[in-house]
## 1
Amino acid sequence: MASEARRAVVLLSGGLDSATALAVARRDGFACRCLTIAYGQRHAAELAAAGRVARALGAAEHRQLHLDLRAFGGSALTADLPVPEGRSEAEMAAGIPVTYVPARNTIFLALALAYAEVIGSFDIFIGVNQLDYSGYPDCRREFVRAFEGLANLATKAGVEGGRFRVHAPLIDLTKPDIIRLGVSLGVDYGLTHSCYQPNPEGLACGRCDSCLLRRAGFEAAGVPDPTRYAG
Amino acid sequence: MASEARRAVVLLSGGLDSATALAVARRDGFACRCLTIAYGQRHAAELAAAGRVARALGAAEHRQLHLDLRAFGGSALTADLPVPEGRSEAEMAAGIPVTYVPARNTIFLALALAYAEVIGSFDIFIGVNQLDYSGYPDCRREFVRAFEGLANLATKAGVEGGRFRVHAPLIDLTKPDIIRLGVSLGVDYGLTHSCYQPNPEGLACGRCDSCLLRRAGFEAAGVPDPTRYAG
């Protein structure tokens, strides 16, 4: 091919979902510029995971940006609030949990949009999903569509006729669906990190919502869980 | 009054417009929490101005958040590109200038939204205006309305029935209108900073678009210009 592949900006947290979204973007032929936000998250272990995933999946670039959302707090991931443990699926489905970080995906997509516009990309990938998600409002299709509309109003590139697309390839997938898709695309989930409260060695707690959803996902997918648990 | 005034988050740059927006928010009875973003802007002198303005106008709080957009660049304010000088109004009106910072107001409103949600506020003030603006797409009414819609989809507070409002009280005002309004509300514009390329002492260049719009605004308003120019 003479011309360079189309560029995409991929929001990469280091978790299971965004790793799969990156693999989809690669499958679809994009040259992927990954963006990871160090936002003062409790589980900073995911930042190292993002670097491993970007390398393993052949990202063209990987940037980490610092933005300390502990300045605002308001979440168990950015303030000194306990992370819920051992909740049932029914309990998780009952409401938006304290691990919700106010406006996080709005902030992340805004930063991805800035990055995309600077490098002449119109394609942004985000690994949100609305089925097996944790009840977060900014993981829903209507949010993603609304942001896409905003992006085309907000930017020079949009006003000049370009069309930004926010790709959310996992939006309607369950966790086992996502894992099967990722495995089919060669994702090594042993490189990813999901736990909200890993121990100092980075081992997963096995009890937070994120661990429980991940573990149940591997079980339902019939895929061996590569996660190293602390307990 | 027994109950505390309603809280608003006010995006405060240290410039003329956002100082006026803060004065309007105060006039309307809000307890104002100002948010200033240190984004690696060339004219960091505006950060000190934001502090002065917040104090002078009785803000209940003033926070500065660090987010280095020089990581992306793509603007004369965040990269090593020359700031246009001595342009006529016709030249300024001809297109979006190189001082446009990709997705800046999307990022700033997203951060204001996070702050608002954490403190239980539903009111965000931003000093954008679409008439005497510099051609920036994210200073238009349709952008502001789109962000407001997004805010209500993106957040726990929005999903639970709250309604965020993005107030842009200057949206249809010209620069002289804004200055007259601010003067009527007691804004001391001598505290504000507009120049994109101040000298090391913080004096305005008098030649960048921001200086030219500001100077012409004072002239047209018939208000003495308190700005200290370098030349």
## 2
Amino acid sequence: MEEKLVKEIEQEGVSRRQVLAGTGALAAGAILSHVGGLISPAVAKDGTTEQWPWPYEKLDPEKTAQLAYEEWYRVFCGAAVISSIFSQLREKVGGPYNSFPIDSFIYLEGGQAGWGTICGAPAGANMVFNLIIGPRKPLTDNTTAHEMCIDIMEWYSKANMPIYMPKNPKVTAELPHTVSNSPLCHLSVGRWMKAANKPLASPERKDRCARVAASTAYRAVELLNDWKDGKYKATGEFNCGKIHGITGQQNCNDCHGANIPEAPKAPPEAPKAPEAPKKA
Amino acid sequence: MEEKLVKEIEQEGVSRRQVLAGTGALAAGAILSHVGGLISPAVAKDGTTEQWPWPYEKLDPEKTAQLAYEEWYRVFCGAAVISSIFSQLREKVGGPYNSFPIDSFIYLEGGQAGWGTICGAPAGANMVFNLIIGPRKPLTDNTTAHEMCIDIMEWYSKANMPIYMPKNPKVTAELPHTVSNSPLCHLSVGRWMKAANKPLASPERKDRCARVAASTAYRAVELLNDWKDGKYKATGEFNCGKIHGITGQQNCNDCHGANIPEAPKAPPEAPKAPEAPKKA
């Protein structure tokens, strides 16, 4: 996984040497001077919020999911996932969680202000991972949050949603379950609406989305608890950049049908000159 | 615009009465008690980061764009947009900007950890608007940040990117310009790669993305400066929920071709009973 990430980061414009040397603030400084050195690395001035990992105490996934379900009816999917985890950590830990403005993230609903891009549930979980565990190499010596984003987006795309069944659900009729094959709100909600034959404004669609947020918060806490116990292993396998040479999801056929285009490829590397014979 | 937003919020499960009564924390409490009252509204414990708007001083769009361009080579698109604006506001204002962990948001690159969902540039701008101006109704009495998200995603989708030309660009060859017709990374980057015939890992693609982040930071600051001057007017017109009854982007044909499905619709409202005659 480490090697894979090094390759991905290289694609984004950081050399292998920089990545492999990338351990903490020192590395960020080294990279900075390499690319121009015009801007200092951002360090939050109170000295705690840009030092990772943020202190984490294990949470109960069930309790977290129920909180997320209820919070959906106040702040919708993205902020509900963030709030369900951070509201508990404010109580248990305090510190950096106290100053993080949870309610700002209501805009993640509907795939960001209703535009149907990434569902707020994985968008909120991705944010939580990166706030708690910290940014990836080369800014830190850690690739875990990056890997956890890939894991939860892959998990979300394959899950038969909604998974979590709340206590005292607002809608008591049985809801259909669907697989989105994508982390996008438009596809996740659209496939469910088609299967359920329910409109966007229906109580059933709303409760389905509240349960999707709850299901994602549950899974996010499972991953974070594993990480806290030193048991987390990255499981995500999809890498569109490797397969097709472009950033992407795993549902290529949804838009491309059978004709998935190949992105322009880098020219093959020139053969290396033979090494000079070693001196005896 | 106000009326449109009220309708959108209604679709998400909040009643018209609640929305129209939604002025600040009091309204949040009222809504909360309506939907169950199990969770207190999140209020950051230091008392400054969840009070909106955050103090804002007008910034120079040109300087901000150049900062974003340079920051791309450290933290990629999403965090570059956030950093270009917040690093200046840390100097000019301090306060809530000091504790916001900018560098966590490196994961917005590549449409969130390389998954090709929303481009980090509009994702970062959306975040900045909602952190500074504050969340929409019903949590506050303000719809501006919500409208600004729609504006910048529509602007991004129609822009002939990249627009901003940095001082001392790392790539000096002329780069092609393309219109993404979408805020998604996969489409924005993919269309440009096809036009340029350059691979993902090429210096040209990287510099194109750095300039896209810079262009978006420039536009974000123009909108924020207008808002500060009391001159901001929402201009975004696309509303997929209204047109097709589902969250979505404006590029329906990209995936659906000519056959854009209609989402399940709500049954027509029952005719209202005639009002009782008024007493004389």
